[in-house]
Amino acid sequence: MKTDESRTVAVYGVTGGAHIRPEVADIGFAMKRASQSAGRVRLVVVGRGSKEAEPTLRQEFSGTNIIVEALGLVSAEYLSRTLASADVQLFVRGEISSRRGSAIAGIACGLPVVCYAGPETGWPITEAGILAVPVGDREALSAALERVLVDDELRRSLAERSSRAQEQYFSWRVIAARYADVLGSLRRRSNGKVSAEATRVARTR
Fold it and tell me: Which of 4, 10, 35, 138 has the fewest CB atoms in 10 Å of its CB?
């Protein structure tokens, strides 16, 4: 269990197969560097690939003061509780974007997200509380993670941004409204085309 003396970093999903070691190496580098300032840190890895990655994770953090928990696949309710109880989400599965459901899950739970950025990193994901660094820049990644873990005000500010972004861009209510707008627009456009074709046919008779 988390204690008041420790910070919790959540990782949601690890890519399996040959990608495990590079991702664990990124996680390990950032966590070990950040823990030098943050002190006792807990890493919780959950979701797809987390159990597969557990042996590599434990080897990576052997001899450190970092507590490792690999939870595997869990229910949606348990996942939400796990993410919401963390202090920050670490995302290293390529660049963050609005297509990355695992990153949006952390935003939906009001988490700051320390992540890699690339060409696909744009609005509205940039409205959330993310600290993004260039893909593969482990030094910058660890520095960003350290800042979030040790700076209470920054962490609160980023968490608030994520909560606002969830309400404004990523909630089911907003997404459903956008779908309804698109479908309505397509329907109006289709009806307009039908009316125009009917008028054209009538004029030729």
Answer: 4
